[in-house]
Amino acid sequence: NAGVTQTPKFQVLKTGQSMTLQCAQDMNHNSMYWYRQDPGMGLRLIYYSASEGTTDKGEVPNGYNVSRLNKREFSLRLESAAPSQTSVYFCASKQTESYEQYFGPGTRLTVT
Amino acid sequence: GEDVEQSLFLSVREGDSSVINCTYTDSSSTYLYWYKQEPGAGLQLLTYIFSNMDMKQDQRLTVLLNKKDKHLSLRIADTQTGDSAIYFCAERGYGGSQGNLIFGKGTKLSVKP
User: Is some CB atom of chain A closer than 8 A to the CB atom of B93?
Assistant: First the structure.
């Protein structure tokens, strides 16, 4: 049982490049989330998906797009990366009525 | 708006008790959580407390909730070096969509042998 998996683990981009961060969960969870973690800032919600086919903005959505491809997969896209997007990105999932979010191991992204 | 505040650092000696404090602003929060993040890893749920409880104990962990002061604390008894991690307090607002969590900035606990 893999839980929540994220790819890649590390990525370096140049300013203006694009990339997609992948997230998949095998727990049949309805809700999925993308967070970014910056030093001294805690976790901030970028986008979430309450169920397959729906996505909503979180606290810091600018510069990002998401796709809930199916119930298992939720991807995060940076169309034109900026140095301010250097961060560690976490995907999480949970069942709708549960209180516990399960987190992936994170993707460490550096934009130069 | 919802906000969760924590001190950023705590250092203790092995065997001592650690107390990590948190304040929150949303008085309608129904659940409050403590997550643990070990170096290079994602977050894991450590424990949680419902807002109708004052205290919850789970082995070495004790969670205290003071709703009047909107204060939450996590006490770790007999702290071990393996407890070194970042601890995040989080609240789930009553109006939050689908269980969205508001996290504090995290308290980095350092345990010295």
Answer: no
pLDDT of residue A64: 98
Chain B: closest CA distance from residue A30 (Å): 10
The answer to whether B80 faces chain A, any CB pair under 8 Å, is no
**B93-98, long-range: CB within 8 Å, 24+ apart, which pairs?**
B93/B2, B93/B26, B93/B28, B93/B29, B94/B26, B94/B28, B94/B29, B94/B30, B95/B28, B96/B2, B97/A48, B97/A50, B97/A56, B98/A31, B98/A48, B98/A50, B98/A96
Distance CA B31, CA A13 (A): 39
Contact call for residues B4 and B102 (beta carbons, < 8 A):
yes
A83: left (phi over 0), alpha (psi -120 to 50) or beta: alpha
Least confident of A81-90, A98-107, B10-19: A98-107
Q: What angle do CA B52, A31, B3 make, to 5 degrees?
A: 50
Average pLDDT estimate for B75-102 = 83
Subunit contact A48:B88, Cβ cutoff 8 A: no
**Min distance B80 CA to chain A CA atoms (Å):** 23
pLDDT digits (tens, 9 = 90+) for A36-56: 999 877 889 999 998 898 999
Taking CB atoms and an 8 Å cutoff, what residues of chain B touch A96?
A: 98-99
